């Protein structure tokens, strides 16, 4: 049935007075809402390691959802795993493997990917768009609101910092894991205090984010939380790796992973030195080539599991 029946009747009855307004207000084929788009595209389980693509009206971003069988009926968590600039939404899973790692957990997660065609660069509006789409996904799949997390690399890390610092977005997520980034989306300075628990991946040889810039973010977070000296929870001479934990006076956890890993120029483009995923799930152009004593995805998932929404 047309959404315009009432207006048409009014137009027939009072043509001279209301006719033009009736046509202006009448759209017989309104675009799908995001919820309708997700439902019409599909809510069933995806194959292991695979994801379904969603392109919905009103969004510049392209979204992917990896849906474990148990999640089609509700109650799962939700993880957004966002790529760096110029990388497609499919790329982060090569680095983290979160689709595979979360699929068969006793309490699985839907894993969301996103990019922004055609440049594949998130802008200031992208953070709001990703937030809105995550909220709709949470509704459609009846997601466990205590187990919603977001992480991202470089440009995706900047979106993640926006979630960490924006009160409305922070209230929606439980914890976050930015990587290789030192600015919020749009180039804004990162807030002085994280509003959720954070795991921060930082490479000493990162030629894009810059270790000095990431040091400043880490220092701001530790100071903002009034956390004092960190505890070293893991370390290794491989990659000069160390993982620190700061705990704020209110109990908020901030962990930082620091490493020397780089990508060997002989491995091909892109050539960004240490601006690469350390401990990648499988070899790929965005991964560091040197050995890492940790798995990127496992560290991220462990942090998410340890940091559901606090009461």
List keywords for this structure.
311 residues; alpha/beta; Rossmann fold; ten-stranded mixed β-sheet; 10 strands; disordered N terminus
Fold and architecture overview:
- It is globular, with a radius of gyration of 22 Å.
- The chain has 311 residues and is an alpha/beta fold.
- It has a single domain, classed as Rossmann fold (3-Layer(aba) Sandwich), CATH 3.40.50.1820.
- Strands 1-2-4-3-5-6-7-10-9-8 form a 10-stranded mixed beta sheet, sandwiched between helices.
- The protein has helices spanning 5-13, 15-25, 34-41, 91-96, 98-103, 124-140, 155-165, 167-172, 211-224, 296-306, and strands at 52-54, 62-66, 77-82, 109-115, 148-153, 175-179, 198-203, 231-236, 241-247, 253-259.
- Strand 1 (52-54) and strand 2 form a beta hairpin.
- Helix 1 (5-13) packs antiparallel against helix 2 (15-25), helix 3 packs across helix 6 (124-140) and helix 6 crosses helix 7 (155-165).
- It has 10 helices and 10 strands.
